[in-house]
Amino acid sequence: MTETLILAARQGEHRYQVHVGPDALAPLSELAGATDRVAVVTCARVARTPAARRALAALKRTGKVAVVVTLPDREAGKTLAQLERSAVKLLAAGLTRRSLVVAIGGGAVSDAAGFLAATFMRGLPWVAVPTTLLSMVDAALGGKTAVNLPRAKNAVGAFHPPLAVLADPRALRTLPSRELRSGLGEVVKYALLETALLGRVTAAGAGCPDTALLAECMRAKLKVVEADPSERGVRALLNLGHTFGHGVEAAGQFERYTHGESVALGLVFAFRLAALLGRVGPLAVAEAEAAVAGAGLPTRLPLRLARRAAALMVHDKKRTASGLRWVLPRQVDGARWIVEVGVEAGPLAVAAAVAEIAGAKLP
Ligand SMILES: NC(=O)c1ccc[n+]([C@@H]2O[C@H](COP(=O)([O-])OP(=O)(O)OC[C@H]3O[C@@H](n4cnc5c(N)ncnc54)[C@H](O)[C@@H]3O)[C@@H](O)[C@H]2O)c1
Ligand SMILES: [Zn+2]
Q1: pTM of this prediction?
Q2: Which of 18, 71, 131, 166 could form a disulfide with 171 if both were Cys (CB 3.0 to 4.6 A apart)?
Q3: Would you state the pLDDT for residue 315?
Q4: Is residue 133 located within the same domain as residue 248?
Q5: Are residue 137 and residue 241 in the same domain, yes or no?
Q6: What pLDDT is attached to residue 362?
Q7: Alpha-carbon distance 168 to 129, whole Å?
Q8: Which ligand has the minimum distance to the alpha carbon of residue 49?
Q9: Ligand showing the shortest atom-to-Cα distance for residue 249
């Protein structure tokens, strides 16, 4: 029998618990019972799954559910128009600052519901019940909440850490395989940030990580968030693979590659770039590529798209005034590396890495 693990999360003055395992939802009734009303925020696709039904049933038993807000699926739910629609529903349902928002869904739902909780009546507590792999190991942790503007993802948001994160891995049983793989991109990222995890992540391959491995990934993220709660420095470590990765996502018009697939390509790119800069040896590149490929994620993309990704990544919002800064590994002994932020790389090295990831030879 798998046990439910409880992790202690700290973000500035705020402390909360992360429960992961088959009994993760157990605290829901107590959390809801301690408030005057509960607003559940979800989306239709998630609401139909057994995992969401279990969470909703547990909440309803407390008699505190005043409203269920069903957002449009994915990014369509992360808009200011939907924020207004949701806030109006909360107001009509009589929610106050003593009420609770519960987000049941993937990262799109937790980002939107978290931002609703951050702003409604100037802020009320919220609980995340993540239902995708990506939201369990990434989006629901760390307190970043946001909605999109038409041409800018996450452009309007707030830091508003949850009261608790309750992750039951059984929710992942209904997750489409492409969404699972997308989450695996972040799982591999944690393994490359914390090399002690590399063996376990490689062994787990393209399957669903078990409770213990999920908890390790969560710990890896929480550790970085705790060290840098408002994202001024080392939290940029979590962007490993994301500089080129964001370029890939844009180059594929956000359709051809999922976020996780783009991050996977970005991870390979980061290791190849680091090798070209003399920061790591070929073995580190091979290990990173093996972890990515083992998770069923791509390690190569067509040259045309790789070039386009490189051109688009300069539009990345995390770019500093002095130009692109990379998150790259550096070998510390024969076998291991550490990851560093704020690394510069010249255009020639970047062009060479673009050629390598496309499997092309430079002229
Ligand atoms: N706040 C942060 O720190 C942070 C970090 C990473 C990503 N994000 C955000 O997270 C979002 C992506 O999250 P995501 O990858 O979870 O995608 P998502 O929330 O868009 O969900 C992907 C799809 O899976 C469906 N789904 C969710 N759970 C399911 C389940 N258990 N069974 C079947 N279907 C299910 C959803 O309805 C949706 O169609 C993006 O908006 C991104 O910006 C935020
Ligand atoms: Zn990511």
Answers
A1: 0.96
A2: 131
A3: 60
A4: no
A5: no
A6: 60
A7: 8
A8: 1
A9: 2
Ligand 2 center from residue 260 Cα (angstroms):
7
Please work out whether the CB of residue 242 comes within 6 Å of at least one atom of ligand 1.
no
- 327 lies in a domain? yes
167 and 19 fall within a common domain: yes
Instruction: Write the CATH number for 271.
Output: 1.20.1090.10
- Residue-number span of the structural domain to which 235 is assigned: 210-357
270 in a structural domain: yes
Q: Would you say the CB of residue 74 lies under 6 angstroms from ligand 1?
A: yes
Rounded CA-CA distance 341/317 in Å is 16
Closest ligand by atom to 170 CA: 1
Distance 110 CA to ligand 1 centre (A): 8
- 157, 13: one domain: yes
134 within ligand 1 shell (Cβ under 6 A):
yes
The contacts of residue 218 (CB under 8 Å, 6+ apart) are 7, 18, 20, 136, 137, 141, 167
Nearest CA to ligand 1 atom 9: 107
Q: How far apart are CA 43 and CA 56, in angstroms?
A: 13
